[in-house]
Amino acid sequence: MQGIWTTERIREAEGKLFAVTPDGELMRRASFGLATHLAGFLAERTGGVAGRRVVLLVGSGDNGGDALWAGAFLRRRSVAVTAVLLKPEKAHARGLAALRKAGGRVVSVEDSPQWIDKADVVVDGIVGISGKGPLRPDAAELIKHVRAPIVAVDLPSGVDPDTGAVDGPYVTATLTVTFGAPKPVHALAPQQCGDIVLVDIGLRPELGEPDLHRLELTDLADLWPIPGAGDDKYTQGVVGIAAGSATYPGAAVLASGSAVHATAGMVRYAGPAADVVRGRWPEIVATGSITDAGRVQAWVVGPGIGTGSEGREVLRHILGQGVPVCADADATTIIAQHPDVLDARDPDTPLVLTPHAGEYERLMGARPGADRVKAARDAAKKYSAVVLLKGHCTVIAAPDGRVAVNTPRGSWLATAGSGDVLTGLIGSLLAAGLDPWLAAAAGAQVHSLAGALAADGVPTSASGLVDAIPGALKLVRDTAGDSGVEVIELPVN
Ligand SMILES: NC(=O)C1=CN([C@@H]2O[C@H](COP(=O)(O)OP(=O)(O)OC[C@H]3O[C@@H](n4cnc5c(N)ncnc54)[C@H](OP(=O)(O)O)[C@@H]3O)[C@@H](O)[C@H]2O)[C@@H](O)CC1
Ligand SMILES: [K+]
Question: Which InterPro entries does the record cross-reference, listed alphabetically (predicted)?
């Protein structure tokens, strides 16, 4: 699992490391790594390094210092380096002296457009982890005219380092070179960061437990249930699906199909769309009523069940079964409007809620706001449930404070019925006995992998997502070295 640390934790760790490291050493490590990646970027983009033109946008702190020192290192490789000082009186003094000594040019904001126009790469050293709010007007004006690709130092300026939120002008980078450890912005603002590389400056031993987590493909491969020699359809977990209606059977078909593909366990369906579900997925045991559904190890409830009294009774019945529940869509709205349905639940029974921003508002009385990690944590605590907050980046919080972030590849999941597919995946993993936080995080990640595979550069549908689940799981297992098949590069946009 990849760890992610908030800027407060990064600063604490940096403080400890500073105390035992020679003066300037950390910035030297950071800026040397930055220069190396800049040279690689130039070579890849322009076919060479010497004689290429790099413009540094330099703010008033150490982020600008990193840029200036990297500029000095690039001069050794005969790169033409021009630094634009946004606040000359506050520019990092030693970095500036080093760049000047190495033959770098230093220009004012007013004189900078002619250099920016001719740049092969522009380096964003405007602001780093001490950044607050959007780009200020002078920097925003410069960024507006940049045509060259931008490499961000540590993070794209104008994007909040801890929430990834933007509230005005910001930098959109092609590459972000970060130092020491990933910060929340890197997981929560992928569109602004572009590709991300990490330069090791020796911080890791000082960091302690991460604040946020990101599942890696190897984690998925380790935790995804695969039948063993002694398994049968029951031992791998039976998931029950209560979704859809006679008029709108789509949600039932999608959630059920997703569960069929997710694991080798059995799927039961209970509800008014039984005939349609049986017709589409003959392997499903379908019945018209929740009360004669048979035994399951976890329930999926909500998509398309309506928010009236019938839906309410279905939800109440399921919450009282003493097995893990993934409550989605209409079930979320019912819980928000009739919180007493939760009285049917034994508080120790795992519950996963999967709200989008509107459903979150119903549950919590306010929109998630800029700090989506805090928003998910608050809801998880309030409902003693795992809360998967949907958005471009999905945030998954457990009541004990653990948070995972799923950073998708592209925006292909924004399609009707996509949530029904996700809930089917999570339900299957709950039935297989996974920790509910891991089940939700793993479900979200395979969901987005399936999205990227299904889309392959063009929009996809929820049915396409269901069909792509086996391919996504194969990719996961192949990546973990199970079959020795080479890893495929996924399309990003
Ligand atoms: N510490 C270490 O060990 C290492 C640190 N390293 C590097 O240092 C970076 C952190 O440096 P830092 O703390 O000096 O602050 P930094 O982010 O450059 O901001 C400077 C000033 O900018 C201002 N400002 C704020 N918001 C703004 C905005 N929206 N738009 C414009 N300006 C804005 C605000 O000053 P103000 O103008 O408000 O007085 C703020 O104080 C870190 O990201 C990494 O790159 C590496 O070298 C590795 C070792
Ligand atoms: K920056």
Answer: Carbohydrate_kinase_pred_CS (IPR017953), CARKD (IPR000631), Nnr (IPR030677), Ribokinase-like (IPR029056), YjeF_N_dom (IPR004443), YjeF_N_dom_sf (IPR036652)
